[in-house]
Aminotransferase
Amino acid sequence: MSRVSARIANIAESATLAVDAKAKALKAAGRPVIGFGAGEPDFPTPDYIVEAAVAACRDPRFHKYTPAGGLPELREAIARQVGRPAGQVVVTNGGKQAVYQAFAALLDPGDEVLVPAPYWTTYPEAIKLAGGVPVPVLTDESTGYLAGVDQLAAALTPRTKVLLICSPSNPTGAVYPREQLAEIGRWALENDLMVVTDEIYEHLVYGDAEFHSLPVVVPELADRTIVLSGVSKTFAMTGWRVGWMYGPDDLIKGALNLQSHATSNVSNVAQAAALAAVTGDLSAVAEMRRAFDRRRRTMVRMLNEIPGVVCPEPQGAFYVYPSVAGLLGRELRGRRPASSMELASLILDEAEVALVPGEAFGTPGYFRLSYALGDDDLVEGVTRIAKLAHEAA
Ligand code: PMP
């Protein structure tokens, strides 16, 4: 009998966290590594948010257990913003717990989830952990990494229960236009599907792109949609671990029951910080967004100047997702990387630049690079990749 359960043995390590950990370890050992791996803003959390947490630390009311679903003020603040009753919101330990709980609440063994690929690495693992079957729906740069109804329809089976949408997308930065979202939403409704929509990058959209929430665009979907979000990306609060989910009463009650046994309430101090974040003005966010936008444009321009690299311009989040197919199979520093995984490993060894290969997102032949790092590091990192790529024979 195997010591590790089949359920857990079936779960892969988070590739993005693994790349980030390797880069951080090399850095700690004194290597000048530049990391494009982490999905994390380089900015510190804005001061007014930190101050709210400090005040909460000193207030004995925050020293005790609080309701598992979240501090009432925070649930109400989120509920007000999205026009739902507070009882339909659960505050979670980061968006990640919300992802897991959404699928645990929705899936029975064998239920299928349509997952547009490239997808964020956590989705298929969370779906499997909940007993479900992730069904990737492959997209590429020719459609700006957006899935169309025809593609989704081709993957539909009698076991399909859930459609997952992540917009703005990790890893591609793609943002679904309103009309395309509406079309997908109506199709989901016609096919009696449940929906999970991840809106954690809602505030990070650039240029003419606009964020739209699926259950707002197609209101009839509100009763069959779980929305996921959190403060990590918008407010540079990745370490605080506050996210949330909202949706119809039955599913939210199920998720809350699970959370009440798994983790109880999220740290009160972090929730107090999140309350300041979601009720404060968004000027600090606007400033970070301007920096991301500048870096985005630099990154896209520099990557497209590298022969063998094709980088569509993303419209949201803080990632670019270039194709590196043109660099594969070529001789480079005595090696001949045949896959994006092998090329990423060579770039880390030879140029001391960390990036995440497309294998982690269900589409080999691509890299994900985060541009949530300082402008100078960004330019230096891409310059190193370019120099190395020019040696490819
Ligand atoms: N959803 C998406 C699409 C993400 O990229 C992330 C973070 N990488 C999360 C959810 C979860 O973030 P957190 O747990 O920090 O809130």
Summary: The radius of gyration is 21 Å.
